[in-house]
Amino acid sequence: MKKILNAPQDYVDEMLDGMCTAHPEFYAQPERRVIARSGGATQGKVGIVTGGGSGHLPIFTGYVGKGLLDAAAIGDVFASPSAEQMAGAMRHANGGAGILRLYGNYGGDVMNFDMAGETVELEDDIESTTVLLADDVVSAPPEEAEKRRGVAGMVYAFKTAGAKAEEMADLANVTRIAQKTADACRSIGMALTPCTVPQAGKPTFTLGEDEMEMGMGIHGEPGIWRDKLKPADAITGEMIERLLADMPLSSGDRVSILVNSLGATPDEELYIMYRHAKMQLEAAGASIVMPLVGRYATSMEMTGATITLCKLDDELEALLKAPADCAFWRV
Amino acid sequence: MKKILNAPQDYVDEMLDGMCTAHPEFYAQPERRVIARSGGATQGKVGIVTGGGSGHLPIFTGYVGKGLLDAAAIGDVFASPSAEQMAGAMRHANGGAGILRLYGNYGGDVMNFDMAGETVELEDDIESTTVLLADDVVSAPPEEAEKRRGVAGMVYAFKTAGAKAEEMADLANVTRIAQKTADACRSIGMALTPCTVPQAGKPTFTLGEDEMEMGMGIHGEPGIWRDKLKPADAITGEMIERLLADMPLSSGDRVSILVNSLGATPDEELYIMYRHAKMQLEAAGASIVMPLVGRYATSMEMTGATITLCKLDDELEALLKAPADCAFWRV
Amino acid sequence: MTGISRAHLQIALERLAAAGASAHDELNAQDGKLGDGDLGITVARGWREAADGATELPDDVGMAFLACSKAFQRVSSSSFGTLIATGLMSAAKACKGRSDIPFSESSALLEGAIEAMLKRGKGALGDKTVIDMLEEIRLATAGKADPQEILTATDAAATKALERFRDQPSKLGRARMFGEKSIGLDDPGMLALRRMIDGLTGKMES
Amino acid sequence: MTGISRAHLQIALERLAAAGASAHDELNAQDGKLGDGDLGITVARGWREAADGATELPDDVGMAFLACSKAFQRVSSSSFGTLIATGLMSAAKACKGRSDIPFSESSALLEGAIEAMLKRGKGALGDKTVIDMLEEIRLATAGKADPQEILTATDAAATKALERFRDQPSKLGRARMFGEKSIGLDDPGMLALRRMIDGLTGKMES
Ligand SMILES: Nc1ncnc2c1ncn2[C@@H]1O[C@H](COP(=O)(O)OP(=O)(O)O)[C@@H](O)[C@H]1O
Ligand SMILES: Nc1ncnc2c1ncn2[C@@H]1O[C@H](COP(=O)(O)OP(=O)(O)O)[C@@H](O)[C@H]1O
Ligand SMILES: [Mg+2]
Ligand SMILES: [Mg+2]
Ligand SMILES: [Mg+2]
Ligand SMILES: [Mg+2]
Question: I need a surface site. Which of A119, A208, D159, D188 has the fewest CB within 10 A?
Fold first, then answer.
């Protein structure tokens, strides 16, 4: 395992400790594995809470910040946080105007967050709603779109819902924006090399020396095909095609695109992908607004990339461009 | 070669093309392999120009932006740009107040930049100065400190000199700040796995399955020792110790620290390193100002990290905190 | 005392914690065949945490069940742990305010738990999960009031459920993705419940 | 015509470009032993670029040298290319405004180039670089005015330099890092110059 760590079981806690002491102006850890804004909850503002497994920085905890999230519960690497931690996150995000639970569609996370929601309703009288990201087009056919996994599309929903909440909109409206954004996002991933979960100590999958897997999930979930590594333009081309097949774009449509590294793939290669994606989207008549290229949702040191398209209307575009501030992203 | 690219010889040009079309508000490419601010040179402002090989994003081109650089000449991966390209960068950065050439101490880069400086002095009557970063403590002993390689410390010099130039200071003053910052920086690196230069097609070095190399350079230059991978705290501990041996800190000293991934090492692990580094520096009596943790100077998909310390006085601290804006860093 | 009380729960928790510890490796291995191999950890940790709080349990059996649910919410976030927490929460609601629950209510408590767990896990009966075994037990214990009889019926029902579902494919949870491969394998969640029952009935190997 | 003119340069550039192409693989391999293996590319590309501009060369030999220097500045950024560009720039300055440079000035032109190259590369004589061979040639050609005699002396001096430095360690450039390992190996930059001279004297193998 070629990782820089101490005891594997301390990986997450030491990471959170380091993150909070490096950026105390953004992050606080009021209880173990709960990251909240260092200033505390904003009274009268809808709180936005997320959560999920560790190993995806900046997701989840990194996006706690003004114009983004209020708190996040974080589990072991690739494992759900406990319901108790999620309830804790909700309590620390509570400004009295209700809570939006906004996270990715993974069975364990959903069960725990539902339970946490019931708990804080019962014990703390906190009203809450749920919006799930299910943007990975490969993980289920369109007829079963609600079964899809949530991946990098989350970043768009954090941004727009976060901006809406910052406008002091009510819970219904913040929830509406989050759902609208979730509905407007489609993602697909590809991987070249795996990552290693510290406590497991071995790679999440194996791929041949010159192989890639199209459609692979961010934890190494099986994709659509596995074959010899293709040129960047061919890879990007197929990814964009599959996204457009699921969410057609026509002339005049505006989209934001996120070309995201899973970790090891360098920015250089993301820009090579972006270059081709842009030509392809413009050939389809769409125009690109506020493209994002970089590491927004990772799988530690995995080599590979995901592409997310987020179709915009005036409302979403304005929210996407609204100010936001955390240690990983400033708009 | 597990990389996402088309023809290896197009790697750099397609990357630059993608970067400029993704962020036209920041970057323009007025001539091949010359990246300049999209707004052009600022009249009356000292221009700051850098340059070097590709494969280190955000270094070099990524730091072109307000409060940072004015232009950068960029070569093939890990290869110097040509003197002509460097001269081009200087011309595009020229606002009539002179040019600071600010870059890393690598033989080829120095020869070409000197030649470029003579050329623009001869042909365009542009006055210019040079400040070299030579911050890698491992690459030569203190007696020959001027022979050291330049690594991530560059980022600090870009920031402070960039801020000073933005204040419309004259060339002598901007040069003084750059030199003062260069003198205040010490860096050290370590690596776990290599990267692949596209046109070479094979890894830059080999290390055993469970080996690391302490002190390795960002192109795979040999380090101090190669041994079994150690725990994060031991690695960080030795790195900080070697930096402090070269630049002792005493009670009351202020430093900024950059814990930088060479590419594949995830933010999670940088924070684990930061956590220990902070304890160690504070134990030495120093206090940390504006720590930077992330990917500021990379070697594509290399696994490993560098640590840079930059000792601050009031002047440098204010310049470090001054506003700056590029696609990779906003202060 | 004529039914389930704080004292019963305390004894049960000790036995469940011991059963969890002894089944730890077996359950991890079974879960590892088509899942992430953490079920033994989940079961052992969850009951251990609940048993550690046994001396603090209130007389109110409802609140005692709640404490057990919270123990699982605290330490085990994998599906099985959350489902157990959900079932215990349902029992908590049903028993709230009472310190003595007639054994004859066992089947009804199970019915409530099953309903809550199906809702929580977005599953259905027949998906080949731990809930199918619970349903078999609910049916077998309906109308029974004698604790020994209830345990015997539970034990038989667990065996029956394992046999009935062994040759069916998993339709829920991680194993679902493996479809046909899951045929012939016992569902790890059912096996976990089987070991928990073994612990309660004293059949546990050590 | 009694000396170096535009026409001489045009012929020389063609020969150097051909020599660069034919030595491409050998020089890459030699540089690859202790360096980054790009010297063949540098030499071949640089002279090709200069030769491609040969028909456009001005009569002013100084400006012609400048054009050659610029060709290297344009296409070859590795150390050797930049040093050649530097040497040519020095010759350009020395010849500026003249269309006919007496062969007897060759040694003096070399002297100027050597000085500029040492300054550019922050090196010294004896570091085992291409400059040591140039110095050997400067000494051997001093006082000579006949072009054929100059070529013969150059050829002999190149051989002598290679032999003299072969068993010394490299003290500059990438090979310096390898210290002792460089003993016994010809400096790639010297070998490149040797091949360029072979091209000029017609000894080039094809
Ligand atoms: N959605 C669900 N509904 C009901 N039971 C489930 C569900 N998901 C998993 N299970 C049960 O839990 C067992 C696996 O538990 P566990 O290892 O904790 O799950 P995971 O690690 O996949 O989160 C399965 O064998 C099954 O009996
Ligand atoms: N600083 C220097 N001064 C003089 N000659 C040098 C210097 N650096 C390199 N050389 C010469 O150039 C040769 C290597 O050229 P090249 O392959 O272009 O260098 P690199 O690829 O390391 O930049 C060496 O063999 C040596 O003769
Ligand atoms: Mg499991
Ligand atoms: Mg699990
Ligand atoms: Mg070389
Ligand atoms: Mg080179």
Answer: A208
Mean pLDDT (chain B) is 97
**Nearest protein CA to atom 2 of ligand 2, as residue:** D121
- Please list every protein residue whose CB sits less than 6 Å from any atom of ligand 1: A 107-108; C 31, 35-36, 38-39, 42, 78-81, 83, 121, 123, 129-131, 172-174, 187-189
Complex ipTM: 0.91
pLDDT, average across residues C188-192: 97
In this structure, the answer to whether residues B218 and B249 fall within a common structural domain is yes
Neighbours of ion ligand 3 (CB under 5 A): C 31, 35-36, 38-39
Structural domain boundaries, residue B265: 185-320
Asked if residue A170 lies in contact with residue A97, where contact means CB atoms within 8 angstroms, the answer is yes
Question: What pLDDT, in 10s, does the model give residues C5-46?
Answer: 999 999 999 999 999 999 999 999 999 888 888 899 999 999
3-state secondary structure C31-61: HHHHCCCCHHHHHHHHHHHHHHCHHHCCCCH
Reported as a single tens digit per residue, the pLDDT across B302-318 is 999 999 999 999 999 99
pLDDT of residue D1: 52
Q: Is B92 a catalytic residue?
A: no
**CB-nearest partner of B4 from A58, A269, A328:** A269
Q: Is the peptide bond before B58 cis (omega within 30 degrees of 0)?
A: yes
Ligand 1 centroid from CA B28, angstroms: 54
Res. A121: pLDDT tops 70: yes
List the shell of residues around ion ligand 4, using CB closer than 5 Å: C 36, 38, 78
Please report which confidence band the pLDDT of residue D182 belongs to, taking 50, 70 and 90 as the band edges. Answer: confident
Instruction: Give B15-50 as a DSSP string.
Output: HHHHHHHH-TTTEEEEETTEEEETT-PPTTSPEEEE
Cα–Cα distance between A175 and C176 in angstroms, integer?
31
Percentage of residues in chain D with pLDDT exceeding 90?
A: 84
Gyration radius (Cα) of chain A, Å: 19
* DSSP-based three-state secondary structure for B73: strand
Class of domain C3-200: mainly alpha
